[in-house]
From TrEMBL:
Residues 11-125 form the Glycosyltransferase 2-like domain. Signal peptide: none annotated. Pfam families: Glycos_transf_2. Keywords: Glycosyltransferase, Transferase. Its EC number is 2.4.-.-. The keyword Glycosyltransferase applies. It comes from the Bacteria. The keyword Glycosyltransferase applies. It comes from Sphingomonas rustica. GO terms for molecular function: glycosyltransferase activity. This is Glycosyltransferase family A protein.
Length: 222
């Protein structure tokens, strides 16, 4: 196994009113075959028990809080508190399958030219158990991300890529990285379960909800 696979990494997790799902998300990260050095939960002005659930994990989780400014700003808050050279992302309603971090760290360690790696994800309905054997698709999003701090600092704040209705900010942010010459790889492995749950911003099913993000990407490329 490459040396990077034994390196420390941290997980950034923005959360807003995620009391129904954040415990499962955190457990899935801590159950990794290569667990993180630290998980940073950025509570984005939640009014439910999100913060208290995060605190219940003790020193395994660092909780930081802000007023409700959206997932992009919460991601930036978590990044500001991270000191690791390798950073993974997580959405509060998703789960990782157990070897996610180990496989991605191995991929990064095998190619020094890579700035970040992503993976496939499978959707599952809230209340059901996810299976990595189901139909999956590439995910260019937080929960699939393992990235080097060096490229994070080059790209800059995620909120600069924010869009109306806070959809697709990570896709635009990664596009900014590609324009800087960043190299991102998509692994074929299904390593993430994406929870479909009513009211989830990142998993909106209505295609019309994605139009602001698509318009913003087209504007970026002009």
């Amino acid at each position: 196994m490459s040396a990077i696979a034994n390196a420390c990494y941290e997980v950034i997790l923005p959360a807003f009113n995620a009391a129904r799902t954040i415990e499962a998300a955190l457990h899935s990260v801590l159950a990794q075959t290569l667990p993180p050095d630290r998980i940073i939960v950025a509570d984005d002005g939640s009014t439910d028990d999100t913060a208290s659930i995060a605190r219940s994990f003790g020193d395994r989780v660092t909780l930081v809080r802000q007023a409700n400014l959206g997932p992009a700003a919460a991601t930036d808050l978590a990044l500001a508190h991270s000191r690791a050279t390798l950073i993974a992302g997580m959405d509060a309603d998703d789960i990782w399958f157990p070897t996610k971090a180990e496989r991605q760290l191995g991929q990064l360690g095998g190619d020094d030219r890579l700035d970040g790696v992503f993976c496939h994800a499978v959707n599952f309905n809230h209340g059901e158990e996810p299976s990595a054997d189901g139909p999956s698709r590439p995910l260019w999003g937080r929960s699939a991300m393992m990235i080097r701090r060096s490229i994070v600092d080059r790209i800059g704040p995620v909120h600069h890529a924010d869009t109306p209705r806070a959809l697709g900010e990570m896709v635009r942010w990664l596009d900014s990285g590609r324009r800087l010459g960043a190299r991102f790889s998509m692994m074929p492995d299904c390593l993430v379960g994406r929870r479909l749950i009513e009211g989830s911003l990142s998993h909106a099913r209505d295609p019309k909800a994605l139009l602001p993000m698509l318009r913003a990407r087209l504007k970026d490329r002009r």
